[in-house]
Amino acid sequence: MQKILIDGGVSLRGRVKVSGAKNSALPLLMATILAEGEHRLHNVPDLVDVRTTCKLLRELGLDAQMGRGVARVSNRGPKSHEASYDLVKTMRASVLCLGPLVGRFGRARVSLPGGCAIGSRPIDQHLKGLERLGARVSIDHGYVEASARKLSGAPIVFDMPTVTGTENLMMAAVLAKGVTEIKNAAMEPEVVQLAEVLCAMGARIRGAGTESIEVEGVGGLEPMHTTVIPDRIEAGTLMVAAAITQGDVLLSGVRSSHLAAPVEKLIEAGVAVAESKDGLRVKATGRPRPVDVTTQPYPGFATDMQAQFMALMTLARGTAVISEHIFENRFMHVQELKRMGARIRLEGSQAIVRGVRQLTGAQVMATDLRASASLVLAGLVAKGRTEVNRVYHLDRGYQRLDRKLRGLGAKIRRSRARPPVTPK
Ligand code: EPU
Prior knowledge:
Blueprint: E1 2-7, E2 13-17, H1 22-31, E3 37-42, H2 48-60, E4 63-67, E5 70-75, E6 82-83, H3 85-88, H4 98-105, E7 107-111, H5 124-132, E8 136-140, E9 143-147, E10 155-157, H6 163-173, E11 179-183, H7 189-200, E12 204-206, E13 212-216, E14 225-227, H8 232-244, E15 248-252, H9 260-268, E16 272-276, E17 279-283, E18 293-294, H10 306-313, E19 319-323, H11 332-339, E20 343-347, E21 350-354, E22 363-365, H12 369-381, E23 385-389, H13 392-397, H14 401-407, E24 411-416
Parallel strand pairs: 2-15, 3-14, 6-7, 10-11, 18-19, 22-23
Antiparallel strand pairs: 1-23, 1-24, 3-5, 4-5, 7-9, 8-9, 11-13, 12-13, 15-17, 16-17, 19-21, 20-21
Helix pairs in contact: 1-2, 1-7, 4-6, 5-6, 6-7, 8-10, 8-12, 10-12, 11-12
Uridine-diphosphate-2(N-acetylglucosaminyl) butyric acid (EPU) is lined by residues 23, 26, 93, 119, 121-126, 160, 162-165, 186, 302-304, 326-327, 369-370, 397.
């Protein structure tokens, strides 16, 4: 098992290119199920979750290969309609094959995702939506089974905006008979990109990026040739890396319009953020001002940036309140940050963070992707050495974050963790 070693205290400087968005690449790869032919996706990040998705597509009988940022999927009609427990248990986003499988082939059998580290994360809205489109849905031996001779468009009102729920239902509806209206839809840029790519494949979708999406079913779709949008969460993480180390970093390949909420909060914290034709320059001097943050669906402050922003606030010149309103258990980084000297008190869905002058390096580990990123960020500025264990969480969603940080001057490297000593 690998771990990351960081000797903190270096101000990051230089230029870094942001990779393609994980949460856009995954639904786009699943959308290849919808059309036979040769699909090509550029700017695909080389991540464990992307490789897992390619593996899932291969299990369904598609030929999916990934290399040098390009994913090639050859769809000659799937041989299976099943996403097995072994794959779904490693990646919840596997559930995104449900919509395209039922929409295109009228059948899907997908292992029901369990709870995960950040919360219980049910998929009831996905299933309710499929039922509204006329699918028979049942749960049998831990699998969701959905079938329909032909889906029919219908109005769907989500109880809450759900990102993968909106994506799943859009993909189910593109080949349905008639018009589907999705109300209280998620408005994330990844939902918008999926809609745009589906439209380029021949689908008819209006309103993506608003609360109300209309999908008019069509008879068939063409394969996609597309480029994945930049990862706004990786960009936000690198912006915090610049801010926390009081550095000066230029992020290239970003879309600043997707970053309005974190940029706003960084500016409130006293960080200089300036856009130029070369990208987004983030420059900080001195400790940050305390800034309260509440996570919300897009365009609000993303839950996927909460842990990283908390790392920054551990060093604020005062007290910040961080409220998590999307997932009920997304504070696992708190205990670990406290081991590095942070002063944080948890009160239900709020973390009260009292800034300290200095964090100190420690051995830490996290149980989810964004929490791991927050520990790396804290390690960049902590006094002495920080060891971040369970690096595989980081590799699920960040393409070589350690290498990117090293390119900016950070003293960060990987090493193999020793196997645990078993008592005799
Ligand atoms: N929810 C339900 N029922 C449902 C669906 C969602 O109760 O059927 C609840 C969830 O439990 C949560 C809220 O609705 O409280 C919003 O969840 P959402 O469905 O939007 O989350 P998701 O689609 O499962 C995606 C991202 C997550 C990101 C969230 C929120 C992908 C593959 N995953 O998850 O990304 O945190 O949206 O923005 O797009 C990550 O990248 O680290 C990550 C966890």
